[in-house]
Amino acid sequence: MTVAYLGLGANLGDARQTLKDAVVCLAQQHTITVLAKSSFYRTAPIDAGGDDYLNLVVKLDTTMPVRHLLALCHTIEHHFGRERPFRNAPRTLDLDILLYGEHAIDEPDLIVPHPRMTERAFVLVPLVEIEPTLIIPQRGRADAFLAAVMDQRIEKLKSPCQCLAPNTAAGSSARSDGAADNAGDNAADNAPKGPCR
Ligand code: A4P
Ligand code: MG
């Protein structure tokens, strides 16, 4: 089993619903267990135009080889209407592999740890929320990079529903200001029609 972290982002369409559905798609894989899910964050576009993004980070335990995980990310993005008209274009869904165990990969189509993750509040803040003492291989503690990105606008969203406890179906242990945003987490009840198996 390998612990991996994925960054999810969207700024086109119903971003919140798409992100929830994407997490359900991940959780429904037989070879993936979603261990934790951060709060949702509204974030200013960085090196990009368009509307504000919604971002979150998930922590997975998986037996899926990293290449399969990348292919799954692309399949889920495609299912939710991802288009790539130009670099950093607004998108319905982006799934990036931030970390895959201790692995360091530097290939044309796959770089892990994600090369820009330490420069971005929209990655670091949710990552540190779910793993406060995380060490990024070859770079050190994730929280050490936070000070340098604090000029990037980022706002943690409160859950619209305060009645559900965290740590339910998809294995979320992330907390927002009150309760985790669990609506859409119950993979059995809320399964999106998608590439989930
Ligand atoms: N690729 C290489 N390494 C990876 C990896 N670790 N995970 C390749 C996923 N893909 C990886 O990806 C482009 C290529 O990177 C793919 O062919 C893949 O094989 P993409 O999904 O088409 O585009 P991308 O994710 O936008 O590319 P990139 O270069 O990772 O962009 P960034 O640097 O992640 O920036 N602002 C806010 N507020 N929130 C955001 O989510 N996202 C970006 C994208 C810019 N600004 C943003 C946000
Ligand atoms: Mg991407």
UniProtKB/TrEMBL annotation:
Enzyme Commission code(s) on record: 2.7.6.3
Database matches in PROSITE patterns: HPPK (PS00794)
Main enzyme class: transferase
7,8-dihydro-6-hydroxymethylpterin-pyrophosphokinase domain ranges (all copies): 87-98
UniProt-annotated stretches for the region Disordered: 167-197
Coiled-coil stretches noted in the UniProt entry, renumbered to this chain: none
Pfam families recorded: HPPK (PF01288)
Pathway noted in the entry: Cofactor biosynthesis; tetrahydrofolate biosynthesis; 2-amino-4-hydroxy-6-hydroxymethyl-7,8-dihydropteridine diphosphate from 7,8-dihydroneopterin triphosphate: step 4/4
InterPro entries reported in the protein's UniProt record: Hppk (IPR000550), Hppk_sf (IPR035907)
Record has Nucleotide-binding as a keyword: yes
Keyword Ribosomal protein recorded: no
GO MF entry, a single one: 2-amino-4-hydroxy-6-hydroxymethyldihydropteridine diphosphokinase activity
Low complexity bias: start-end ranges: 169-191
Keyword entries, A-Z: ATP-binding, Folate biosynthesis, Kinase, Nucleotide-binding, Transferase
Family annotation (PANTHER family): 2-AMINO-4-HYDROXY-6-HYDROXYMETHYLDIHYDROPTERIDINE PYROPHOSPHOKINASE
Family from the record: Belongs to the HPPK family.
Function: Catalyzes the transfer of pyrophosphate from adenosine triphosphate (ATP) to 6-hydroxymethyl-7,8-dihydropterin, an enzymatic step in folate biosynthesis pathway.
UniProt name for this protein: 2-amino-4-hydroxy-6-hydroxymethyldihydropteridine pyrophosphokinase
Lineage: Bacteria, Pseudomonadati, Pseudomonadota, Betaproteobacteria, Burkholderiales
